[in-house]
Amino acid sequence: MRNRATRIDPTRLDPVREFWVRPIGHHSAALEAVLNILRSGPVAGKYCLICLKPHAQWAIGRISGVRGVPPTRIDGPVFTTIEDAERHVFRLRWEAETGYALPHDEALWSEGGAE
Amino acid sequence: MKSLLGYADKISVAPGETIAFKVSSEDSAAYDAAIVRLFNADTNPAGPGYREQSVPDANWRIAGRPQKVNAGSCAVIPVHRGPSALASFRFSVLVWPTLPDQMDQTIASLWQPASGAGFILAFAGSQGLSLRLGDGTGGSATLHLGLPLLARHWYRVEAIFDVETGRAQVRQQALVRYPGICDSGETGRDTGLRGLGVEHAALVLAARPAGAPGRFAGHFNGRLEAPVLHCGEALVGAWDFSVGIGTDVVQDSGPNALHGTLVQGPARGVAGHAWDGTVFDWQRATAQYAAIHFHQDDCEDASWKTDFTWTAPTDLPSGLYAARVHTAQDEDYVPFVVRPRAGGSGARLALIIPTASYLAYANEHLALDAALAERVHDHVPAFGPNDLHLAAHRELGGSLYDVHDDGSGIMTSSRHRPILNMRPKYQSWLGGTGSSLWQLAADTHLLDFLDKNGIACDCITDEDLHAEGAAVLSPYACVMTATHAEYWSTRMHDALLAYRDGGGHIMHMGANALYWRIAFHPTRPGIIEVRRAEVGNGWITPPGEAVHAYSGEPGGLWRRLGRAPQSVVGVGFVGQGFDVSSYYRRLPDSYRQEAAFIFAGVSDEIIGDFGLIGGGAAGLELDRTEPALGTPPNTLVLARSENHTRNYLPTVEDLLINYAGQAETSAVYAEMVYFDCAGGGAVFATGSIAWAGSLSHNGYKNNVSQITLNVLRRFLHANE
């Protein structure tokens, strides 16, 4: 197992920008490598979406990992696109994984990460 | 949480037949009920819209009542027909626990809850075996052996009580010993009891009576074998689970013939303590398969009472229908098929509604239980109210993809329980982006398309096909399969092949069909069994257990059983992804004269770069040709999908070795094919589950719908 702290370089934001443009669908190898880490946690506590209104509203939840205990919604905004909810989960996981907060959406395009 | 749930006694109703609906209204609220015909179960605002139609004179106001599901399997043996009063007794059984640390698991009981009379032999977690005795007049005693048991190891367990001395004993002997592991021993003492006062009780294996008739508690997880009960020196019964595998009866081989009944469908045809790896088919050495695997979460039949019934009018068109029940707070739909009258309605087209595949996925918990689910579809799973309810109510049972609480695979699935993902409007994490539909709801894209084009279509279920064979297809010029007809019994398979070879025309509208063999319960409709031999999916069949208990047939992929789907419909499963779908590009065969009718009015090179399922006609699960697996040599490969995401990965049975970059070099794409058959019929296959989601694009006028209509019109009028 590689050192957890070095699994994702928090200064490289190109994969993040790519994800922001297209959260679901074609992803580069670099983004796939990041997603493979961010999506690979254990089922207990894993983020999920809770659909509040079909095709219209989603909240973030966490899976219990305990049979018979349903996912619970966590505090946070209600999203009106599934892509925005995806970006939010990405942001939460990035911060938990790297220890660094991601820049705000607009700032993503002006800060750091140049190759 | 949901407050209304229901199911029905049938899934296929012939005109004139009556169907009974069983509903739980959790808070006892009265509800409205009505029969509706389902045309489009997709609520996606990007599509043509959800569409159901009321059936006249079929609506009711029902006084609601809550109904519970009592999950957990056991065997109930009416020993009161033999020696009645239980005085001195000796009970022995072989035990293979799967969750030995869990408290309150009953191995066997002969117990009267009201009076507290009888015995309960159970696990008490880390305290190991316990024997509770009661005389029915307030006297009781409990012995604890104090030896933990190892999971998935065989033990001989005995409970003994001597009415003369009041002495009780518990013994546990491991059949496999390890140095330093102390898991064999016995304990005994004078209980002070001078009788057990049991009358008219049943011997219950793997649970104990809970008071109300038919209710049990303290379910055991694991396998039991060869229980024997003596009363004094007299043999009461010796039950041989190797007899009647495939039935719900446990046979007493002793002189009293005290045969028992299984409750909630525990697993039979599983290896017992004597399985030695020399046989792999229980029919060849039943004595090595003398165990039954019980689970606390087995759910074969909710056994709810009927709340309302409906008789299908004789002039009602065949189609997909549902009983809609609703209050101001909640609603549920109980879907069913109204099949045509015997011999068909006169329609030239039949759609096989793949109810066996619906059962395979019934109440699937993969995204709740498996961390890998998110990586399988490369986006965060979204759960709706039905998923959250399922997550909280494991007693509703799982799918053939899930595992039991003890980690063993769920091998059977029943429709005699509410199935929360077999519902119109239901969105599944397996359905990709966009509409996110899977199975029943996705299949309504076909019904909607046919109805919008004025094409009469009879609906036939898998159960009809299994029960009646090719005769049920014979009235039709064309038979259509649905988006994901994955699970086939041998009789279903035989029927489709007989139809094709007898001159029938098949439009294979989905993908990954004809994939797993299943067996239907031999006597009770609506229950299927799968053995995931050689290749797993969610779980894999343990060694030596690849033969169905229901049928005696070897289980597994039809491909591994010598009937690859490629040999039936030209294409077979090659890989899957569950994020976004893609498109097809036409191949040279599509410009051949023989294929001209398929592409009449279609000038595009790119087919299906649009749709409600992932945004394209090629997506979710994909099929392609493979001559080595039986694709007929005269097959025209009309188009091939391309530009799939990195999430589209080859199916595991094609992976004979792993290597870096495997996904990039694997041929995971859909192929659209056509071939003529020697019997005069023909087959058209799309090779993609997502295809049906593209039919409605642009007001139903697009190259996917045009190709579908071109083939359909040719097939419908082929033999005129």
The number of E-state strands of chain A comes to: 3
Structural class by helix and strand composition of chain A: alpha+beta
Largest interface: A-B, 35 and 31 residues
The gyration radius over C-alpha positions of chain A equals: 15 Å
- Number of continuous helical runs of chain B: 11
The tally of helices of chain A reads 3
Which descriptor suits the 3D outline of chain B? elongated
Mean residue pLDDT of chain B: 95
Largest sheet data of chain B = 16 strands, antiparallel
Low-confidence stretches of chain B: none
Distance between the termini of chain A: 27 Å
Biggest sheet: strand arrangement of chain A: 1-2-3
Please write the string of helix (H) and strand (E) elements of chain A.
Answer: HHEEEH
> In percent, how much strand structure appears in the residues of chain B?
25-35%
Unreliable stretches covering 5 or more consecutive residues of chain A: none
Query: How does the overall form of chain A come out from the CA principal axes?
Result: globular
**Main sheet of chain A?**
3 strands, antiparallel
Radius of gyration of chain B: 28 Å
Structural class of chain B comes to: mainly beta
Quickly count the domains of chain B.
Answer: 3
Measured as a percent range, the helix fraction of chain A is 25-40%
